[in-house]
Design a protein that fits this description.
With 503 residues, the protein is an alpha+beta fold. It folds into three domains: 313 residues, BirA Bifunctional Protein, domain 2, CATH 3.30.930; 62 residues, Herpes Virus-1; 111 residues, Anticodon-binding domain (Rossmann fold, 3-Layer(aba) Sandwich), CATH 3.40.50. The strands form seven sheets. The protein has a nine-stranded mixed sheet. A five-stranded mixed sheet has the order 23-22-24-25-26, sandwiched between helices. β17 and β18 form a beta hairpin. It binds zinc ion.
């Protein structure tokens, strides 16, 4: 356990030192838990992840939208968040500390059953078990529901809330989608944007944030579509690391690599459309740089599911910091959302099926970007006697190429800057650095995961050759500078390997 803690300290230490993330923010005022700033490299990395997410959704037939992050109270009344998006809390009667009641009971009395208990029942449980304030041993107050939404105001007096998820803002557009998609279902849209959750006492750094970037893909479809889903044919031979009906404590060895067609036959999935969504989520995480080695798709036990959910699977990523981390949920939301918004807005959100009005169902893929960002840094970290480096896939790395003059002499600096420009113009994210010894410059690039470094020296002035250095093997080879864009393109896209450049 202590070594796990040490490892997350290592990751946070490196992330702060090298400008991936800083916080809690605002640091100079002591920081508020649950808020982090992305430094320049964190932002570059996040942009890369988001661009991969976008292209994967687009490839799967989804269209992107962007909605406001603030909505008036009625929206959240309709969505169920005003009444249902709550944590049960209790406050110490003496020192005033606030605790999440269910978590506190689980921590202090692991055998107690608390899932699904009302605030009143939790209050009774605390009395029955004799639980007191862990800090000052005084009695705890009665358990109260605490809403996790952040409240704000429109104009002088209209109550409004910052969205706790992007999904609701997407659903409000359903009538517009019907026009845009010319009345045809299924219709698929996605949104990437900020969401806010006023967690009582967020821990685990960037894994539990009060403000985060959420990605949610939604498919609006009819019941029949969920069974007749032609796209399933394209993925039925794909093999996924599945973990059907297992608790979170399950072992990696419990994962079975299963062909999607077999998963359907074995009844792991009831509906091809839903199974396809699980595959799309898996593919997005593959594209973000996670291998099957560190990934598993876990089906919730019936006791873990929300009451309206027919099925629920998560994408989980293995980290050295925290073990398995839940990173993405795939939800079968039925027609709950559109029905509620139809009822509260009094707008018709149904379509005609056999001349009868039917409110469509929704399948959803939902995840935050900050968790995979952290997991990627955690997974990429390598340390040996000589150095620390981040083994990002070249296509994901925030900086792809670093360019150095061997020394800060004018005759080398000029050509190095020209080469740097030409590499930038060829479309790579590059960094120019002439500070310190060449060894130190290599180490700095290793620590931020830059896969390739190029050095200009006196030989370059004579024959145009430069030194190209590979991050993982630390091997170096000489290539002609005019060939660099082509060589880098092939290396970064994985079309060729560094070793094959060696003469
Ligand atoms: Zn206390």
């Amino acid at each position: 356990m202590s070594s796990e803690k040490d490892f997350s300290d290592t990751i946070y230490g490196l992330s702060k030192k090298r400008g991936f993330f800083w916080g809690p923010s605002p640091e100079i005022y002591g920081g508020s838990a649950g808020f982090f700033d992305l430094g320049p490299l964190g932002k570059l990395l996040k942009n890369r992840l988001e661009s991969r997410i976008r292209s994967e959704f687009v490839r799967a037939g989804f269209w992107e939208v962007e909605c406001p992050t603030v909505s008036p109270e009625i929206v959240w009344k309709a969505s169920g968040h005003l009444d249902g998006f709550i944590d049960p809390v209790t406050q110490c009667t003496k020192c005033g500390q606030v605790f999440r009641a269910d978590n506190l009971i689980k921590e202090l009395a692991p055998e107690a059953k608390v899932d699904g208990l009302s605030p009143k029942e939790l209050t009774e449980k605390i009395e029955e078990l004799g639980i007191e304030c862990p800090s000052c041993k005084s009695p705890l107050g009665s358990v109260e529901p605490y809403n996790l939404m952040m409240k704000t105001r429109l104009g002088l007096a209209q109550d409004a809330y910052l969205r706790p998820e992007t999904a609701t803002s997407t659903y409000l557009l359903f009538r517009r989608f019907l026009t845009f998609f010319r009345g045809k279902l299924p219709a698929s849209v996605f949104q990437i944007g900020k969401a806010y959750r006023n967690e009582i006492s967020p821990r685990q750094g960037v894994l539990r944030l009060r403000e985060f970037t959420q990605v949610e893909g939604q498919i609006f479809l009819l019941e029949q579509d969920e069974i007749d889903w032609p796209s399933f044919e394209n993925i039925e031979k794909e093999v996924l690391p599945l973990l059907p009906y297992q608790p979170q404590e399950a072992d990696k060895s419990d994962v079975t690599l299963t062909k999607m067609s077999d998963a359907l036959k074995k009844g792991f999935f009831q509906k091809p459309a839903y199974a396809w969504c699980v595959y799309v989520a898996y593919k997005i995480f593959r594209e973000m740089g996670f291998s099957d080695e560190v990934m598993r798709l876990r089906q919730h036990l019936p006791t873990e599911r929300a009451h309206y959910a027919a099925d629920a699977w998560d994408v989980e990523i293995y980290t050295k910091s925290f073990g398995w981390v839940e990173c993405c949920g795939i939800h079968d939301r039925g027609n709950y959302d559109l029905s509620r918004h139809q009822e509260f807005s009094k707008e018709n959100l149904s379509v005609k099926v056999d001349k009868k009005p039917v409110v469509p169902n929704v399948l959803e893929i939902a995840f935050g970007v900050e968790r995979p960002l952290f997991c990627l840094i955690d997974n990429s970290y390598v340390e040996d006697e000589e150095r620390v480096w981040l083994r990002f896939a070249a296509e994901i790395a925030p900086i792809q190429v670093a360019v150095f003059p061997l020394m800060g002499k004018d005759e080398l600096v000029g050509p190095a800057k020209i080469l740097f420009e030409s590499i930038m113009n060829a479309g790579f994210v590059a960094q120019y650095d002439q500070g310190g010894s060449i060894g130190r410059r290599y180490r700095r690039q290793d620590e931020v995961g830059t896969p390739y470094c190029v050095t200009i020296d006196y030989e370059t002035l004579e024959d145009g050759s430069v030194t190209l250095r590979d991050r993982d093997s630390m091997l170096q080879t000489r290539v002609h500078k005019d060939d660099l864009p082509g060589i880098l393109e092939a290396l970064i896209s994985g079309k060729s390997r560094f070793e094959s450049l060696e003469k």
